[in-house]
Amino acid sequence: MKRIKHIVTVLVLLVSSITFAQVKFEAKVSKTKLGINERLRVDFEMNQDGDNFNPPSFSNFTVVGGPNQSVSKSWVNGVSQFKKTYSYFLAPKSQGNFTLSQATIEIDGELYKTSPIKISVTSAVSKPKDGNNADYVASENIHLVAEVSKANPYLNEAITVIYKLYVSTETGVSNWREINSPKYSDFWSQNIDIKGLKIQNGTYKGEPYRYVILRKTVLYPQKTGKLEIEPLSLDLTVDVPTNRRDIFGGRLMTQVHKTVSAGERTITVKPLPEKGRPDDFTGAVGDFNFKVTSSKTELKASESLNLEVKVTGNGNLKLFELPKVVLPSSLEVYEPEHNENVKTNLNGMQGEISDNYTVVPQYKGKYPIPSISFTYFDVKTETYKRISSDEIVVDVTQGPNNIATTPPNATSGPNKQPVVLNKDHFAFIKTNTNLEPIVASHFFKTKLFWGSVIVPFLLIPLAMVFRKQKAVRDADVTGNKIRKADKLAKRYLSEAKKALNNKDAFYVALEKALHNYLKAKLHIETSELSKDRIQELLLDKGVESSVITDFTSILESCELARYTPSTQETMQQDFNKAAGTISLIDKQIR
């Protein structure tokens, strides 16, 4: 009996150890069916610690939070239990049925995979109007608005779209990023640079709100009829007050992720009126001045002059052609050089465009450059206007006489007549010379001669010492990397350090320094500086994930600091962290 009891005890212990040793790695989701305006939480849980965790691609979702990692250990009935979890928060990109593919992890040299999970995304669901519900509170207190300057413009008339993010005084935004950006496919468009987000006070539907202007865009419609301005969509991290309070009585906040959209806007573009439209109208719309000038009105044959046709003013300067000049056939004209000096602001394009012609007369005589006309549509008076230049007479004082069958003032064209030259065609060219001999100078055996011979020999020892020191320095790979990294950090962060006493100027300078550093190291443009793109490029360059996370967190701090107060100590910490992170990246980057 005693022997049987021992056997049973051994079996129980054996089964318990086998059960405990069994590895579990599984994926769990907060829901399998959700609306496109809802969030999905995915947890990857394991009962033993592992390495090389690889999540699925989440290609049909946007990762709005995570990965968050949690580890717990406990003892139950004398048995140790371990649980490690990687959590992600996802926002669906579109409606449909999708599959979350497998995640993988390595535990004790074995590869484990989760099971695929099917997710159904439906149209937007209505959320309960519950004042205690954080999602509802966020939706009621955050609004993205697109303000269009004119809903019924003419073709090629400038309009502006200003995107404003309104935030109630009781809530806050700690992070934001663009999800969908309008493409303006039926417009010529240009974004206006915004130097730092400035918080302003205003009203939304009669209620007091704070707002920031996120984007300003100038549009020139290129088609008539109803045109759609696509919506701008943002993913926000919103700070929402709760009913809980801290030990000092202050209200505690909770964070929720919220997607907001400016919504589509439709404008109706009017065609330019047919009545009174000139035959030479080329599409200029705005308010312009026009002139034709010549750099010379008197010159010799074979010399050149510059003829400039220029339009200045406010309107669609880059979207029409300048009128062409028609000159007498005895004036040789080269293809014009087109120049633009145009700036775009909220009033549209302003500046000047010009065509510069190089003109070379061939014969002696007086040649009139006929008047040139420029027509445009004035949106203020809704009428077509014409501006004509004055006639310019070019007087060629010296040169061969033109005995061509074509009259001197005939204009150039396809029916140009052949030119008959006389024997004095080159008579104006001087053929007499006035040459003088050059006196030779003696250089041999002078002080300069001996100096240029001896000095190179004296410099050889110095060059050898310098070369030896350079070889030692070049061999110090680690030291070189450190010196280069510190130099870069100081160079890019010098402006931020000067502004440590001014919060707004400091964070603007710090963000600019980080962006300039990335542009220099990764050879990318400002438009490519998204969080995902930065992570991808730095990983490809061999930079550690923890360093990349620190770098992106500093960028986020620069954005958040504009909405939240910061102390001198916080700014100094952010500066030190930025300098250290740049130094680490430069040491690790390949």
Automatic annotation (TrEMBL):
Transmembrane segments in this chain: where?
448-466
Please list which residues make up the signal peptide: 1-21
Q: What species does this protein belong to?
A: Formosa sediminum
Pfam families, alphabetically? Answer: BatD
Alphabetically ordered keywords of this record? Membrane, Signal, Transmembrane, Transmembrane helix
Supply the InterPro entries for this chain. Answer: BatD (IPR025738)
Q: What is this protein called?
A: Protein BatD
Q: Which PANTHER family match?
A: BATD, PROTEIN BATD-RELATED
Question: Is Aminoacyl-tRNA synthetase a UniProt keyword of this protein?
Answer: no
The lineage's top-level taxon is Bacteria
